[in-house]
Amino acid sequence: MDSINRSQESDDSEIGNESLEMIDVRLGTIDTIRRRVKAAANVLGSMAMVAVLAGCTRAEAVPKTKGETVSAGKKNLTITVGDAHACASVNGDVKCWGHNHYGELGNNHITDSHVLVQVEGLTSGVTAIDAGGAYHACAVVNGGAQCWGGNAEGQLGNNSTIDSHVPVQVEGLTSGVKAIVVGSKHTCALVKGGVQCWGSNNSGELGNNSMTRSFVPVQVHGLTSGVTAIAAGSAHNCAVVRGEMKCWGYNGEGQLGNDSRVRSLVPMQVNGLTSDVTAIAAGSYHSCAVVNGGAQCWGENLYGALGNNSTTNSRVPVQVQGLISGVTAIAAGGPNTCAVVNGGVQCWGDNHFGQLGNDSTDLNSLVPVKVRFP
To answer: What values do phi and psi take at 153, rounded to 5?
Structure first.
């Protein structure tokens, strides 16, 4: 559930037979990982499968691998996975698969699909996509924002609570959108340097000093300019503002990082992170940041998602053990986290289904372990 959107470029005719330098992967809840792994493997081969197993929300992967392929020349590839559905964008063309009872595949049907289906109207022009919500997905299309799927809380942003089986225009966001992130039942977008959110607001996740849901985008308090990255957890969000990190919304596990467990209806300063934050991630109930090349995390730590050799929650950032330099990207899933470190991938936290990618399901890891690629 983070804000990083990387692309992978290759001069080769197939993805999967040469180096996959950057690939976005996003997961939802742990109980659906195994079926998503199978789906991802069918689409993108073992590279994507390992990244999905790592339990990341948008994990980047560098090593070479061989597997099934997605054909074509230069590729801009993003994979994003929600609770029970997934989407892939290749050169701006979006296809989805999986659960579809709320129209989250965007193909004007409500029948589940075990194969990729075309999202209606999104054959080109997509520069960012996030399917990480419970039952909805969103994309940046030619600078505007479109969403589809479940809409009970207004998370599609079209001034309605009616589900949509095809992409609909987010009201007012027809241009200037740089990034979009999806929470459980809310959505946020980075628009012309500021942040706007819509949908559920039970924990203040819209950041507008209110707990009233909104069916259209509202301005996040104080974040009107200078924002360079955003990330969405289940019911909290974070942003990088001129190098410092702020979070807002649900805070029951300390995921806002402000030494409190009290929700916040407006962005709060993360303790100690007042400069040099270059990347951020928001898991279901924890958050992470890359600061001066090192990784720090905070919030829920039951399975070791903070990577500090502990299972104690932390209400302030703690240093991920061993990752004090060389970190270029970070991704947070449910109760696990991954990072790109010196060109390789390391993960930590829950490993019941092999999410850490270290060829084991025996133990969770309270510290980073290296992902083993084929």
So the answer is: -105, 10
Kindly report the number of other CB atoms within 10 A of residue 149's CB atom: 31
Domains and CATH numbers, the chain: 14-370 (2.130.10.30)
Q: Among the residues of the chain, which ranges form H helices? A: 33-53
Could you report the per-residue pLDDT of 52-106, keeping only the tens digit for each? 333 333 333 222 222 222 333 446 888 988 889 999 999 999 999 999 999 999 9
Categorise residue 257: left if φ over 0, alpha if ψ from -120 to 50, beta otherwise: left
Q: What is the dihedral of CA 55, 58, 63, 69, to 10 degrees?
A: 100
Single out the residue of 186, 176, 119 nearest to residue 150, CA to CA.
Answer: 186
Find out whether 30 and 54 touch, Cβ atoms under 8 Å.
Answer: no
Token pair for 293: 């090349």
CB-based contact 252:285 (threshold 8 Å) = yes
Handedness of CA 127, 181, 212, 215 (dihedral sign): positive
d(CA 328, CA 342): 8
d(CA 299, CA 288): 9
Output the pTM of the full model. 0.84
Reading the block at residue 357, the tokens are 């990618």
What 3-state DSSP class applies to 30?
A: helix
Q: Which residues, listed in sequence order, are joined to residue 140 by a DSSP beta bridge?
A: 128, 145
SS3 assignment for 289-344: EEECCEEEEEECCCCCCCCCCCCCCEEEEEECCCCCCCEEEEEECCCEEEEEECCE
- Buried (b) or exposed (e) across 41-50, using 16+ Cβ within 10 A? bebbbbbbbb
Predicted confidence at residue 75, as pLDDT, reads 65
Instruction: Identify which of 23, 18, 29, 27 has the alpha carbon closest to the alpha carbon of residue 48.
Output: 23
CB 205 within 8 A of CB 252: no
